[in-house]
């Protein structure tokens, strides 16, 4: 249950509202902050080199480094000015960026007290994130501090957070959406190309980000593993599966009734010829998405990799 933030009277709270208004002006729907968090997770995983895709696969130092990357990526995205003793200056106010993987776990150094903190948290597994603002008052300090004299917010401080986005949707990590045994099977091959085939076969009808392809293939030319001429489009064609690109085939995904990929995403779809006047025309035949368990008796159509006219 989301608690309503407790707001206080006075000039300081107007400062928080001014910062909040500027953040909403810059990012009305939170999509830019969501992209910052998605990118930060993917940077820390470094899947192309490591094959990692889960938080529990990271080392302790990498988990700690997430907050620094979040602050840096936020600055790059919004071009905030640097603060004097804080990370940012927003709406002419000092603002310090703090990330915690757990709600309420933000560690605040002494120099932040009296200033505004931008506090954020998220869960890649749940594909959710939250971001808010709080004036860090002395009475919000939790008793006790670590060796760096950092302390966290007490209950009153946490209730004073002015949430801008709470439990907002994060672009999903398909490797965390699939059953664990399926993911193990995807990775259980010496061949990066075969692992890519298995990913698109297992993730039929789900959005697959290019970072997931890179994590599975673990090759510099991972996008080549998707294409025809030996890639997954060639291999899975015989199984009635097409792989749609968000850059060129989003309207086809819409016609087939599957999630519409963004330019850096894919979606694989099992298709069969359609007897109705509904569905996209490909290779001179009208197609629809195959029903669960339906036998696919013919190969999928060949789709132009750089676009398909709407039909």
From TrEMBL:
It comes from the Bacteria. Keywords: Endonuclease, Hydrolase, Nuclease. Gene3D superfamilies: DNA mismatch repair MutH/Restriction endonuclease, type II (3.40.600.10), Winged helix-like DNA-binding domain superfamily/Winged helix DNA-binding domain (1.10.10.10). It holds the Pfam family NaeI. SUPFAM superfamilies: Restriction endonuclease-like. One of its GO terms (molecular function) is DNA binding. This is Restriction endonuclease. Residues 18-296 form the Type II restriction enzyme NaeI domain. InterPro entries: DNA_rep_MutH/T2_RE_sf (IPR037057), NaeI (IPR015210), Restrct_endonuc-II-like (IPR011335), WH-like_DNA-bd_sf (IPR036388). The keyword RNA-binding does not apply. GO terms for biological process: DNA restriction-modification system. The keyword Disulfide bond does not apply. It comes from Cryptosporangium phraense.
